[in-house]
Amino acid sequence: MKLTYNVKDKPKFGQVIVFAIQQLLAILAATIAVPAIVNQVTGSDMSQSAALFGAGVGTLVYLLFTKFQSPVFLGSSFAFLGSMFAAFGGAASMSAGYAGIIIGAVFAGLVYVLIALIVKFAGVGWINKLMPAVVIGPTVAIIGLSLAGNAIGDSLAGAYDANAGAYIMTTNVWVSLICALVTLFTVIICSVFGKKMMKLIPFIIGILAGYVVASIFTVIGIQTGNDALRIIDFSVFKNMGIFAIPDFTVIKAFEGISAINGKYIATIAVAYVPVAFVVFAEHIADHKNLSSIIETELLEEPGLHRTLLGDGVGSMAGAFFGGCPNTTYGESVGCVAITGNASIVTILATAVLAIVISFFDPFVTFLSTIPSCVMGGVCITLYGFIAVSGLKMLQPVDLNNNRNLFTASVILIAGIGGMTLKIGQVTLTEVACALILGIVVNLVLSAKKTEEKGE
Q1: How does DSSP classify residue 341?
Q2: Residues paired with 427 in a beta bridge
Q3: How far is 386 from 407, CA to CA, in rounded Å?
Q4: Global pTM?
Q5: Residues in contact with 23: Cβ distance below 8 Å, sequence separation at least 6, in sequence order
Q6: What percent of the chain has pLDDT over 70?
Q7: What pLDDT was estimated at residue 125?
Q8: Cα 425 → chain centroid
Q9: Is the peptide bond preceding residue 71 cis, with omega within 30 degrees of 0?
């Protein structure tokens, strides 16, 4: 696709702020969802504002290591959820969990540093041989397709249950669906038919349109006593402050240092290190996808070793403040693809904005009230673009060749079918399983091809 702003382009200051807000909206839901899920499962009190701060810091670190050449935002990684559960429920008391998640992030980051050193001296040729287009294309598609259920689930959820005191999935999904569709079609219309600025900020316009519709339904629901129409919880604004310092993980970690022992550290290492190797595969897929969008091979320049160092050290820095190891976000890549804005200045501004707004309650509170169904409408486009980007990588591949056909087929079916494997505390996601299986199939069939040539 033709980019409106290339990596080195610098939009006007006012435009950069608007573009940064849009990137922030694209990554927000997932970034703050990780600490929310950890809190729900473990009973801890991780700060969502701190996670947002950590994501901003992690992105700044990543940009520095990649010499400001890779336009992607780093947010809280879902892959490490099980590892974080282990940190809070391991051999030490829960109060040591905050220290544990920092230690775990350091272990994971060191894995990236180790691989980066190997890549630095061995080069990336082996990566391209191991993961050619026939392997990486379907894998990128799976990243988007594996998230499809989340997008649709969010689009059909969000009604308020007064008895449960929470927003839940209900049999009356029409209100949520209407909000999602208004958001979806607003994004599509702005992207396809919009002119100039409108074409560059379709997500902001779409989310605002969906929020307005959700607000109207909510007001009607409050006035009529119909809880099924209450999509937005306006009550969170009542006790809202203006300025608040996030509960940084490093501060809480001091409380549990004395409870850490050798057994606990071993538990954390086992929980985090294998997952880091799994996320490495997704790291390559994300950067291959982004490379195809900006038409620059990021694994060559600035180089895979730099993107790995940025991701690894960025995860350490992010966890130090917010507790969550970071990872490059497909939502951010999708935002770049749809808007045609790959300006690194936009990503830099997004990182700074994430850090700044984490201290301001009004903005954080407003962002937290954006309904799931509205974000679901946005994510249908974001995840869809990721999937299509992967399929586009298959265009130059000869699918009339059975070797390529079987490789791509195996990856797609394993990924879409939801193949996941749990080995101890480590879960191989459908993306990881599909990629590993695809690599094996491709190597086996490549060996057969080499044998035939020899004969």
Answers
A1: B
A2: 422
A3: 20
A4: 0.81
A5: 73, 332, 335, 346, 347, 350
A6: 91
A7: 82
A8: 21
A9: no
